[in-house]
Amino acid sequence: MDGAALRVVVVNGSPNQPSKTMGLVDVVLDMLGGMLPMETSRIDVYRLGPGFTGAIGRDDVTPEVEAALRLAEDADLLIAAAPVFRGTYPGMFKHFFDLVDQYALANKPVLLAATGGGDHHALVLEHALRPLFAFFQALTVPVAFFASAGDFDGTRLLNPRIYGRIEVGLADVADLLKARATSSPATPDA
After folding, report:
1. Considering the domain boundaries, does residue 1 fall inside one?
2. pLDDT per residue over 64-111, tens digit each?
3. Does any domain span residue 74?
4. Does 190 fall in a domain?
5. Rg of the chain over CA atoms, in angstroms?
6. 166 in a domain, yes or no?
């Protein structure tokens, strides 16, 4: 690898800061950072403000929200992370993706992560998140990560089994992501 950094963008669908969802994602980012060079950005959908929440369509967003949307669309790897509320991802998380260009995520690697109150919420990965990104024709990587409330002390992930799943899962897709970093075109400064 020539040292090209993978541009990773996390779309955080949790209303809480700090959150268990970002506690899980932080472990993923730490392990991924040990495998390949990367630059990380984060979009907290609940912090985008009225220029986001009041937007019905892409033409209605403020310049700051437009920049967040473009950041997600231009990522080498998108990490879509959401807590489970009432069996699915939160509405603000979905609203963000309602504003993303329909073809901007085509063939883009997307890694799914979710947290929930119990293990039964893990189904959100396959029955809600994966179909959402299938609509965009995104390349959702075969591994996805879930942790339930009992796996945390506050927002710190403690369960060693989940650490092991993350390590093995990232190792399985590391070559795909390395190839993505080396083939990404350089982005001009805006």
Report:
1. no
2. 999 999 999 999 999 999 999 888 999 999 999 999 999 999 999 999
3. yes
4. no
5. 16
6. yes
State if pTM tops 0.90. yes
Dihedral of CA atoms 80, 83, 89, 94 in degrees, nearest 10, equals: -50
Convert the chain into a string of H (helix), E (strand) and C (coil). Answer: CCCCCEEEEEEECCCCCCCHHHHHHHHHHHHHHHHCCEEEEEEEHHHCCHHHHCCCCHHHCCHHHHHHHHHHHCCCEEEEEEECECCECCHHHHHHHHHCCCCCCCCCEEEEEEEECCHHHHHHHHHHHHHHHHHCCCEEEEEEEEEEHHHEECCEECCHHHHHHHHHHHHHHHHHHHHHHHHCCCCCCC
Mean pLDDT of 155-167: 96
